[in-house]
């Protein structure tokens, strides 16, 4: 078994190349957050539509797939709420810091 040395210079070069401005980072974060919330919203709307179709009897979907779709939507919503709570908690922690 041979051991190869780690070249730290390649890591520092990659780090310097990937440095972004603050505004770029904020825009990227905002885009990721907006896309994530959009996908959760789409899942909620499609699940609501599915519930309406099943309740009115217009859907031929079996109960098993219906319940899976409901649970997926529920997990997405709960995850979104947890992430929101963590972000708010982190913001409050930063605001409590002494300068």
Molecular structure report:
- With 99 residues, this protein is an all-alpha fold.
- It has one domain.
- The protein is 80% helix and 0% strand.
- The protein is elongated, with a radius of gyration of 22 Å.
- Pfam families: FliE (PF02049).
Name its key features.
80% helix; mainly alpha; cilium; 99 residues; cytoskeletal motor activity; structural molecule activity; flagellum; FliE
- The low-confidence parts are none
What Rg is obtained from the alpha carbons, in whole angstroms?
Answer: 22 Å
Task: Write the element-wise H/E pattern from the N-terminal end onward.
Answer: HHH
Treating each run of at least 4 consecutive H or I residues as one helix, how many helices? 3
Count of spatially separate domains? 1
- How far apart lie the N and C ends? 52 Å
Subcellular location: Bacterial flagellum basal body
Main location: other
Keywords: Bacterial flagellum, Cell projection, Cilium, Flagellum
Protein name: Flagellar hook-basal body complex protein FliE
Indicate the topology:
Elements: H1 8-17, H2 22-56, H3 63-96
Helix pairs in contact: 2-3
């Amino acid at each position: 078994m041979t051991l190869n040395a780690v070249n730290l210079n390649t890591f520092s070069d990659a780090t310097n190349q990937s440095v972004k401005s603050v505004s770029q980072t904020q825009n990227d974060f905002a885009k990721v957050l907006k896309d994530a919330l959009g996908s959760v919203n789409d899942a909620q709307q499609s699940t609501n539509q599915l519930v309406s179709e099943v309740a009115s009897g217009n859907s031929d979907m079996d109960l098993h797939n219906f319940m899976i779709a409901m649970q997926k939507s529920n997990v997405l919503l709960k995850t979104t709420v947890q992430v929101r709570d963590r972000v708010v908690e982190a913001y409050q922690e930063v605001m409590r810091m002494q300068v």
